[in-house]
Automatic annotation (TrEMBL):
<keyword id="KW-0677">Repeat</keyword>
<feature type="repeat" description="PPR">
    <location>
        <begin position="111"/>
        <end position="145"/>
    </location>
</feature>
<dbReference type="InterPro" id="IPR011990">
    <property type="entry name" value="TPR-like_helical_dom_sf"/>
</dbReference>
<feature type="repeat" description="PPR">
    <location>
        <begin position="146"/>
        <end position="180"/>
    </location>
</feature>
<feature type="repeat" description="PPR">
    <location>
        <begin position="76"/>
        <end position="110"/>
    </location>
</feature>
<feature type="repeat" description="PPR">
    <location>
        <begin position="211"/>
        <end position="245"/>
    </location>
</feature>
<dbReference type="Pfam" id="PF01535">
    <property type="entry name" value="PPR"/>
</dbReference>
<feature type="repeat" description="PPR">
    <location>
        <begin position="246"/>
        <end position="280"/>
    </location>
</feature>
<protein>
    <recommendedName>
        <fullName>Pentatricopeptide repeat-containing protein</fullName>
    </recommendedName>
</protein>
<dbReference type="InterPro" id="IPR002885">
    <property type="entry name" value="PPR_rpt"/>
</dbReference>
<dbReference type="Pfam" id="PF13041">
    <property type="entry name" value="PPR_2"/>
</dbReference>
<comment type="similarity">
    <text>Belongs to the PPR family. P subfamily.</text>
</comment>
């Protein structure tokens, strides 16, 4: 049976090639799509733009975005935001800023995601004032910041040790009717713990409990951004306040610390588990080791041997 010249067949093959970073055949297939006048969905181009970004090919992502209309595909704010994010993640902040400023000319009205991507980009470069200008511009245009927007700002201030301004962001959120989430509190907790303000951190824990947040969600928040040391500090504060994490929380933290090769920290967490009379079963250990090391069996075996000897 020959190849079907229809959208599902083309898109399936293109996705597979892009995942393998085999982009030359992708271009050939795109040319064939155009030749056969096959109407494409925006999702295909969004996926390709993301894969170009992961492959550190931002120029290819820009070219594809500019060609989308020639494929009889309407560009929406979703593909625009995807491109902005790819540019920011690949160190092309100036180009992203140029496109952001031209959004209205291209027929796009930036939404909270658009502004947040730009704020993230400026903060990653350490440009607080620029990020703040984007934030203020957001408010001036009547675009409501999302909790993710605030988390970017709070996270940056916490890393800089400016906890007063970071906590001030919570007041700003409340005024605008935006509720902090577990990640917001995780960032603040990490900032407090990094400054050894454990009493204040402990007080915030009780506030969070009152507001319905959980410690597991906070530690998971640290793990999601791969800040396992921050998660460990939060675990310390939890134990000091006589709260016991769930087994899944311990597993998440150990997995991250193991990936970083932090044997002493892994042992500390294991000892904390033992004091709480919590242990992994064999299956949990197998999953943990597999997720932490993937196919690197040598590293897995080496670290497991070291852990066993250190924990005896």
């Amino acid at each position: 049976m020959g190849f079907k010249h229809d959208y599902p067949s083309y898109s399936s093959l293109i996705y597979k090639l892009a995942r393998c970073r085999n982009f030359e055949p992708v271009k050939t297939l795109l040319h064939s799509i155009k030749h056969h006048n096959i109407r494409c969905e925006e999702a295909l181009f969004i996926g390709l733009i993301r894969h170009y970004g992961k492959s550190q090919l931002p120029e290819e992502a820009i070219d594809l975005f500019q060609q989308m209309t020639s494929f009889n595909c309407v560009r929406t704010l979703q593909s625009f935001n995807t491109l902005l994010n790819v540019l920011v993640d690949n160190g092309r902040l100036e180009k992203a800023n140029e496109m952001f400023k031209c959004a209205s000319k291209m027929g796009f009205k930036p939404n909270p995601v658009s502004f947040t991507v730009m704020i993230k980009g400026w903060l990653e470069r350490g440009e607080w004032e620029q990020a703040r200008r984007v934030f203020n511009g957001m408010l001036e245009r009547g675009v409501e910041p999302s909790v993710v927007t605030y988390n970017c700002l709070v996270g940056y201030l916490c890393k800089k040790g400016d906890l007063d301004r970071a906590k001030g962001m919570l007041d700003d959120m409340a005024k605008k009717g935006q509720k902090p989430n577990a990640v917001t509190y995780s960032l603040l907790m990490g900032g407090l713990c990094s400054l050894d303000k454990y009493n204040e951190a402990k007080k915030m824990m009780f506030d969070m409990e009152y507001r319905g947040s959980t410690y597991r969600m906070m530690v998971d928040g640290f793990c999601r951004v791969e800040d396992f040391e921050g998660g460990l500090k939060l675990l310390n504060a939890m134990l000091a306040s006589e709260h016991c994490p769930r087994l899944e929380t311990f597993c998440c933290l150990i997995r991250g610390l193991a990936k970083c090769g932090k044997v002493d920290d892994v042992c500390f967490v294991l000892e904390a588990m033992e004091k709480k009379k919590m242990r992994f079963d064999l299956h949990s250990w197998e999953v943990l080791v597999r997720e932490a090391f993937g196919e690197d069996h040598g590293s897995a075996s080496s670290l497991m041997t070291e852990l066993i000897s250190a924990h005896q």
